[in-house]
Description:
binds S-adenosylmethionine, two-stranded antiparallel sheet, about 25% helix, single chain, 5 helices, seven-stranded mixed beta sheet
Amino acid sequence: MKGTVADLTHYFDERPSVGSAPGSVRLVLPDVTLDLATDAGVFSRGGVDPGTKLLLLEAPAPAATGDLLDLGCGYGPIALVLARRSPGATVWAVDVNERARELTAANAAAAGLANVRVCAPEEVPEDVRFSTVWSNPPIRVGKEALHELLLRWLGRLDGSAVLVVQKHLGSDSLARWLGEQGHGVSRLVSRAGYRLLEVRP
Ligand SMILES: C[S@@+](CC[C@H](N)C(=O)[O-])C[C@H]1O[C@@H](n2cnc3c(N)ncnc32)[C@H](O)[C@@H]1O
């Protein structure tokens, strides 16, 4: 199947070229259950990613108020859990992928979560600072683009961020690099090939 359009599709494309193939997944956590619409052309459409699930199970409670960020929201599992756990906060769900943004907006509406604001990166006002950032970042965009992305958004952090990264995709070198940029970095959890990194300004 080399050379087909599907081969050239990435979950981080702005407009996925692969045709729509709607699906749904159920996210079950001790405190939250959500049924989420998914589609072809978005990350982990067949089931909640194990790294995302680890973050949602193990991250410390998000700030109760203020502005929270899900960087790279996909179809929205992280953003919606933030919104459910912190109903007094505004959750910014940011993604470059238009289909992912549409799914997150629909999923938030279906779950009755009015405190989710779904945006393309450039739509978030520059003066917004985040008390909590949770992200399963897009490692596959490549090291340079990933570093640029993290510098851009972690520079707006007022509290703490939790990132989940697979060990074999470079979690330890990413942690070292974040430390070199002047962030405080600690490893919260290491399980099943994933690291949960806590980052402070
Ligand atoms: C690993 S996926 C995680 C998706 C979702 N949070 C989850 O846990 O299922 C990373 C997401 O980052 C998005 N992304 C890639 N580059 C981005 C950028 N420059 N700014 C914002 N989001 C980006 C991708 O489109 C993708 O949806």
